[in-house]
Write a structure and sequence with these properties.
The protein has 13 helices and 12 strands. The chain has 3 domains: about 10-55 and about 275-410, no CATH class; about 60-105 and about 245-270, no CATH class; about 110-240, no CATH class. It is α+β, with helices and mostly antiparallel strands and about 400 residues long. The two termini are about 35 Å apart. The strands form 3 sheets. It has a 6-stranded mixed sheet. Strands 2-11-1-12 form a 4-stranded antiparallel sheet, with helices on one face. It has a two-stranded antiparallel sheet with strand order 3-6. Helix content is about 55%, strand content about 15%. The protein is elongated, with a radius of gyration of 33 Å. α3 (about 25-50) packs antiparallel against α13 and α12 (about 325-365) runs antiparallel to α13.
């Protein structure tokens, strides 16, 4: 007999053909289709969420999007002195008890006068400033770049990006001063002069712009510097805060807007972006949940199909084991079916993910976003595929071992 004939009728191949005789192609195709749909839904939702999230997130790297800055509305009653625009301890405590609040921080205002000066293009510029501070845990930067201790040469400062815009396109053009980029402004030292209200006490310091904010219309300094300056230049002054920074669980929660409206409060920043980000997260989570459910159902479809197939072939499987075939050889045909179904669904999912991304990326590119969600999507698809395959491999192994146990009893 030729070598080719021996290979065609080898014991392993004969066993494989015998065990695959009752395999239903329709069931395997049904599993692959349902697994593909589930993977595409969950991975596509994750990919789209990651690619589009920068459109709604703030550019500030030191103020997270789940921080809200709130203040009281300024009305005629406030200006006439009939109502306070600052927050009392009871109001702060009531806010902290809300279920959507994780923590509340107070803005501390400077109780002294601040003069700042810089040299720009050989010409000096001097102006009156103001400082505010918030607890350091609300400033999401490295401690090495946002700290101050008595005796330090420089005070780090975060300013509103709107202030730089006003200087470049308002003051600089009118006064004949050069315009400055953020990098140039960060490299220019600020000379700060702090005076008490009566002018009897003066502190000189050097400032350094550590960052720019789109959400905070203020000039922010470390809490330690603010405490030192207030205690030195305005001892005993401890006014109630006029603004609060709140760490919330969901910035777009409708309960937040309801509470602010009922208490005459408003929040700074882009309210629409916060709501849109909340809706985006909720929608992405819902769609991913549906996709995971479909993937789980596809897993049970394949598990049931393999179980029924092995049950039909139980006698054949038992006979092969009695003839001395190893467990690995008996399980191999079923494992190949699982690998083919999972692999086919995975490859089809990856192809469709790339096509989906090309469809919406042309829209996102108009907003300057390139995205990186494809790797998250394909990675999640690979993980879910491996989990589905591993679960079915384990089930196959247990059923073959069960047949092996039956053989031993015989």
């Amino acid at each position: 007999m030729s070598t080719e004939s021996q290979t065609s009728f080898s014991p392993k191949r004969m066993a494989s053909r015998l065990l695959r005789r009752n395999i239903s192609g329709a069931r395997i195709a049904g599993f692959a289709l349902s697994d593909f749909i589930g993977l595409l839904i969950v991975c596509g939702a994750l990919m789209l969420y990651i690619d589009s999230r920068p459109l709604w997130d703030s550019e500030d790297s030191f103020i997270r999007t789940d921080y809200l800055v709130i203040n009281k509305r300024v009305t005629s009653a406030n200006t006439m002195g009939e109502r306070r625009s600052s927050f009392t301890p009871d109001e702060i405590a009531d806010l902290g008890k809300q279920p959507w609040v994780r923590s509340v921080g107070k803005f501390t205002s400077s109780a002294y006068r601040v003069d700042g000066s810089v040299d720009a293009g050989g010409r000096g510029m001097r102006t009156a400033l103001f400082f505010e501070s918030i607890p350091d845990e609300f400033v999401d930067v490295a401690r090495s770049s946002w700290h101050w201790r008595e005796g330090d040469a420089e005070v780090p400062v975060i300013i509103s990006r709107d202030y730089l815009t006003l200087y470049n396109f308002g003051f600089a053009s009118a006064a004949g001063l050069p315009q400055m980029s953020e990098g140039m402004m960060s490299g220019i030292p600020l000379r700060l002069t702090l005076r008490s209200d009566d002018g009897s006490r003066v502190i000189g310091a050097s400032g350094r712009v550590a960052g720019y904010s789109d959400r905070l219309n203020t000039i922010l300094v470390p809490q330690s510097f603010m405490d030192y300056a207030n205690s030195t230049l305005a001892p005993g002054a401890d006014p109630d805060p006029s603004r609060l920074i709140v760490d919330v669980s969901s910035p777009g929660d409708v309960a937040i807007d309801r509470y602010l409206e009922e208490h005459g409060l408003e929040r700074a920043g882009d309210k629409g972006a916060s709501s849109a980000a909340f809706i985006l997260r909720t929608a992405a989570g819902t769609v991913m949940g549906i996709g995971l459910l479909v993937t789980l159902l596809s897993f049970f479809i394949l598990l049931l199909s393999i179980s029924l197939l092995m049950e039909k072939n139980r006698d054949r499987l038992h006979t092969l084991l009695l003839l001395g075939y190893p467990l690995k050889t008996a399980a191999a045909p079923y494992r190949r079916v699982v690998a083919a179904g999972c692999g086919g669904a995975f490859l089809l999912t990856v192809i469709c993910l790339w096509a989906l991304r090309l469809t919406y990326l042309s829209i996102l590119s108009n907003f300057g976003e390139t995205g990186s969600g494809i790797w998250w999507g394909t990675g999640l698809a690979a993980v879910l595929t491996l989990l589905v395959a591993a679960g079915n491999f384990l089930s196959i192994r247990r059923r073959v071992e069960s047949a092996w146990g039956l053989k031993r009893k015989c």
